[in-house]
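Dear Dr. H.,

I hope your travels went smoothly. While you were away I took the liberty of generating a structure for the chain from your last submission, since the lab meeting agenda had it listed for discussion. I wanted you to have the full record in hand beforehand rather than looking at slides cold. The sequence, exactly as received, is reproduced here:
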Amino acid sequence: TVIIPVVFGSISFLNIYSQPMTRIAASEWIYRHVPGAVNLNLTTGDNDFIQPLPFPNFTRLGSGESISFEFSPAVNGQISAILFDHVVNPEITETDSSLSIVISSILTGEVLFSQTVQNGFQRAGDSRGDPLEILFETPITVEEGQQFQFDLSVVTQESSLQFFGNINLVF
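The corresponding predicted structure, in token form, is as follows:
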């Protein structure tokens, strides 16, 4: 009579370890579904998920300043666009600002994408600025585990830009 409750209690206790830990399962869900400031939007056949990259949600770049970060895709795919949630020039000016975007391979140093966008980036409806979408003429093929570098810089003299929200590299 004592053996049955002991065995049942032991099996119940061991069952705790057969389930994924709640905090790990929650972290995995967050990484797949909650966007960060910079995200790789990855699509693999029947699954879509978000790979957040470490980057602050607000950045200000002055003339000649740049930001760089490295990323490594979790799956094979192609980058077809870059989406900025909000970009604004905080100064009221008549001249356009130039924003340079470069994506390169860290292994080979090869520049895979380079474009300079000229725009006034003035406040219109939203005080944080308008969204900016850059579509690639030819998508960049990336493989799981490869390392890439993303460089963003303001090349216009006497100009600065502010970035609010997410920067998405679209697969």
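Two observations you may find useful: Residues 98 and 118 are 4 Å apart (CA to CA). The mean pLDDT is 83.

With kind regards,
E. W.
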